[in-house]
Design a protein that fits this description.
There is one protein chain. By secondary structure, the chain is mainly alpha-helical. It is built from 7 helices and no strands. The protein is elongated, with a radius of gyration of 31 Å.
Length: 176
């Protein structure tokens, strides 16, 4: 930046004092700063632009998020309350968890990764979210088809008996 100012400073007549040099320098800095400044669209008194209505965003999106969250409550309780482990119910629970998680992480990306300031970072997060959702869906599918299923696994974990003797008890008996 100093090199770009030298020709303008050297071209000044001798009658300029240091204050004039500062004003020339400041003018040059402001001109160069404008090139790298953020673009502000509109003025102070301009109304905010209203986005066009879309069925996948806004209030519809909010209602779908809440409906999915509310649907997870009976899907989580029903297999255990009824006492039957139905594969269809298990698949619905897995699909609901995948959709609920995807929408939640999508909201995080929308809220915390600004599109105008970090477009490449936001694109990376979108693709990472899609990849993670697909990997989780494949994992649930494999677990459902090749293993016991999600609700049976939760039931086994919930009703698992604790071992009679833990690793800490023999040590404590030897010390006491």
């Amino acid at each position: 930046m100093i090199r770009s100012l030298l020709p303008s400073i050297l071209a000044l007549p001798d009658k300029y004092c240091p204050q004039d040099l500062v004003s020339v320098y400041m003018r040059q800095v402001l001109v160069e700063a404008k090139q790298f400044s953020e673009v502000i669209e509109g003025g102070v008194n301009d109304p905010a632009p209203v986005p066009p209505p879309s069925p996948t965003h806004g209030s519809y999106h909010w209602v779908f998020e809440r409906a999915m969250s509310a649907a997870l409550i009976p899907l989580t309780i029903a297999p255990f309350a009824a006492g039957s482990l139905n594969p269809v119910m298990d698949a619905l629970l897995c699909a609901g968890l995948i959709i609920h998680s995807h929408i939640g992480f999508q909201s995080i990306v929308i809220d915390y990764v600004p599109d105008k300031r970090l477009p490449k970072t936001r694109a990376f997060f979108w693709w990472a979210l899609r990849a993670a959702t697909v990997i989780a869906a494949i994992g649930f599918f494999e677990f459902e088809t090749n293993d016991v299923g999600l609700t049976e696994a939760i039931k086994r974990i919930w009703t698992a008996k604790r071992k009679e003797e833990s690793y800490v008890e023999p040590i404590l008996r030897g010390v006491a």
